[in-house]
Amino acid sequence: MREALWPRKGFHRPILYFQKRIVRLTASPHAIAAGFTAGIVVSWTPFIGVHIIMAIVLSYLVAGNLVAAALGCLAAGNPITYPFIWGITWEIGHIILQRDGGQQNGIDLPALFHKLDLSQLWGPVLEPMLIGGIPPAIISGVIVYAVTYYGVKSFQTRRRHRLMERARARMTLAADNASSV
Fold first, then answer.
1. In this structure, are residues 23 and 155 in contact, taking their beta carbons and an 8 Å threshold?
2. What is the pLDDT of residues 93-105, one digit of tens each?
3. How far is C-alpha 64 from the chain's CA centre?
4. Which regions in the chain score pLDDT beneath 50?
5. pLDDT over 70 for what percent of the chain?
């Protein structure tokens, strides 16, 4: 039970894994940053079942990396973050729409979800969450794009230099071996 709630190696390891997985993708820094940002932005929407599909479509439209889009969805939209995302988007949506967030008008959410009656679900639930997701999606999108773009660009530059140094060392070694024979 403890292992399910608190991993033995901590939460830092999965974060490092995502970071390394993203910077090692073979694409331009813009494509990786745009794809990852698309995944993060889509995670602010209330349409949970189709987040990855939406992120891939958005990433394709902005010439982003599709794998990075899926990783962005998985990084931002997960069972740990969804309650916070829903609470933030709900409150911001009610502020923007100038509604009282506590007023429920007797909505039976389990019955509405069971019937999948989106017309009755739209006004009280989906509309404030969708509109409330726009400001945090824009803010997090700009920040994530900038951090990801410069991080990937820096990693790729360092990696290119490291590979060039190894190639020079091999060529020097090969030239030395050829001259000694």
1. yes
2. 989 988 765 555 5
3. 12
4. none
5. 85
Domain spans in the chain, listed from the N-terminal domain onward:
2-180
Task: For the chain, give the secondary structure using H, E and C.
Answer: CHHHHCCCCCCHHHHHHHHHHHHCCCCCHHHHHHHHHHHHHHCCCCCHHHHHHHHHHHHHHCCCCHHHHHHHHHHHCCCCCHHHHHHHHHHHHHHHCCCCCCCCCCCCHHHHHHHCCHHHHHHHHHHHHHHHCHHHHHHHHHHHHHHHHHHHHHHHHHHHHHHHHHHHHHHHHHHHHHHHC
Stated length of the chain: 181
